[in-house]
Write a structure and sequence with these properties.
heterodimer; A: about 70 residues; mainly beta; Ubiquitin-like (UB roll); 5-stranded mixed β-sheet; two-stranded antiparallel ribbon; 1 helix; globular; B: about 200 residues; alpha/beta; Rossmann fold; 7-stranded mixed β-sheet; about 40% helix
């Protein structure tokens, strides 16, 4: 599948991956991430189930403390 | 758009500010100066002496609830601005109660966990409301690394990596830049219908 990840094209051999699998694949080990799939927020508890497939647009934003 | 036209439109706007620390106090000041007509500022904490290096408070306000002290300072900028304060810790229930009806909510918390809670609550449960968040503002220099990213009704300002910690404290300029990036995004939303940035 080919998806758009943070406005860049990314290809994976699998037909679909969960948000959690993509985070692991990208080595995003940050404790807090905001994920939006096709413009919809993915709640954190759904990262292990929500699947991303060909043509999807995924955005990931790292949240760090400070304010 | 003329200054008068912009102020007439901003006077009708209602913006929530979640957290009155370095981000929230400075962001709210910019919004009040710009002419946003109604602001709700919320924070559970008290002004401390160590806040004065970057937060929009004064020495004689040490010990007072930040939300009340900030409202006082905003009214000193413009007595015409309608400011409401909530002295409370904000969880999902409070976020929904305080911020329903807002055109935009500014996420100005310190803890990443609280930031995530507010982003999820507003975007999932207040569908008409914009959420402007901040992530990554510790340290000094690197102004060019501070960016604004937007997607749908979600906007995030900062470098997304400079976490505040014992070895990387926040300083007034970088906190102020990000606070004003948040205020700038709010103005773009209120006046231009969108954040004026791409993801």
């Amino acid at each position: 599948m080919t998806i758009t990840l943070n406005a860049q094209s990314e290809s994976y051999p699998e037909r679909s991956l969960t948000v959690r699998e993509i985070l692991a694949r990208k080595r995003w080990s940050f404790p807090l991430v905001i994920a939006r799939l096709n413009g919809e927020l993915v709640p954190r508890e759904a990262y292990a189930e929500r699947s991303v497939s060909d043509g999807d647009a995924l955005e990931l934003y790292h949240l760090v403390s400070g304010g | 758009m003329t200054r008068e036209a912009a102020r007439a439109r901003l006077a009708k706007a209602y913006v929530g500010v979640a957290g009155c620390g370095g981000l929230g106090s400075n962001c709210a000041a910019a919004l009040a100066r710009a002419g946003v007509g109604r602001l709700l500022v919320a924070d559970f904490d008290l002004v401390s002496e160590s806040n004065l290096d970057r937060q929009f408070f004064f020495r004689d306000q040490v010990g007072r609830p930040k939300a009340l002290a900030l409202a006082e300072n905003l009214r000193r900028i413009d007595p015409g601005v309608r400011v409401e304060s909530r002295v409370a810790r904000i969880g999902p229930a409070e976020a929904l109660e305080f911020f329903s009806g807002c055109d935009a909510v500014v996420e100005a918390f310190d803890e990443a966990e609280a930031k995530a809670m507010l982003v999820e609550t507003v975007l999932c449960r207040l569908p008409g409301t914009w959420l402007v968040a901040a992530s990554g503002l510790a340290g000094y220099g690197r102004s060019g690394a501070l960016k604004v990213r937007a997607s749908g009704r979600f906007v995030i300002c900062g470098d997304l990596e400079s976490e505040v910690g014992p070895e990387s404290p926040p300083f007034a300029p970088r906190v102020g830049i990000v606070a004003n990036m948040e205020a700038n995004a709010v103005l773009s939303i209120l006046l231009g219908g969108g954040p004026g940035e791409e993801a």
